[in-house]
Design goal:
Length: 342
Amino acid sequence: MRFLPLEEITEQMLLAHSIFSNNGKILLKKRTRLTPSYIKRLQHLKYTHLYVYESDEEQWDCTGLVSDKVRSQAMQILWDCLIRVIERKTLNAQQISFVVEDIIREVHQKEDGLFALIDLKTPDNYLYNHSLNVCILSILIGKELKLEWEDLKELAIGAFLHDLGKVYMKSSLKKIQTFSTSDTAQVKQHPKKGFEILRAVPGFTIKIANIAYQHHERENGSGYPLGLISRDIIPLSKIVAVADSFDAMISERIYREPVWTEQALRELEAESPAQYDREVVKALRRSVALYPVGSIVQLSDQQSAVVVEATKAKTIVEYLESRGSFQEIDADSPLKIEKRLA
Ligand SMILES: [Fe+2]
């Protein structure tokens, strides 16, 4: 299994994960053979990299912590939420709660599970994948911090819908990341807009609405829209703030390159406790894989290898020089990963 730029993908390769449209329909199924016409279509959809299998026999999983079924439902529901907001209809709290409960259950099932895939966002699906990623990361952090089920549920709903207020921004939903400077004032308003939408949903608690309101507030008061300081920010929102910043850092955006996990964690650590809650950042470090699936690493035996599985207990790598030869690396193995190369 490899994580490759589109230009390096050949016709013998199979897609190692499904590709979804923004409303949750499967556009290309996992294990589809990547013909030139599919590659062209994916280029058109602005994908730059994909996870691929180099042969039919490969089984490594690139689905992540949430199954295709739940991912598809979550995207459908987010799509539906955005449309309802535009049409000024109330959101369906029950529908949202059900899918979020499914996400929590799946994340919980994988006890050893880490956030371990390299980002695959495109400019067009950014909001959808970002919302789901922030939800998954927040659940992982909440689990580390031993939150009770009810708190975890409010956290996950707030995280999933934290950017809903962006619906009102002038830049179209599709081009959600191509902000011009004139959009800056609108950007600063999205937490409040999100709060207003969520506060009006029957069945949602005020905490859920406050997560959206406060996810850009920072511990030292340097955030927006209110410039609240630590003691005035609700704890669940501090989790979403960290998850949101981390996911934004590891994503490729039009105006900058993505950073690798270690650098993103170090930047967040450097900014805590000034901007981020220190315990939350520590919990994030325990929740994400330093060497995500598909990354190329240098081992202590000086060979290079591709990571094919990454959990809390172990990392499994495949040597690049001798394909089909695998190594399990855990805390006790003499073999270590020295650094990420790509
Ligand atoms: Fe935001």
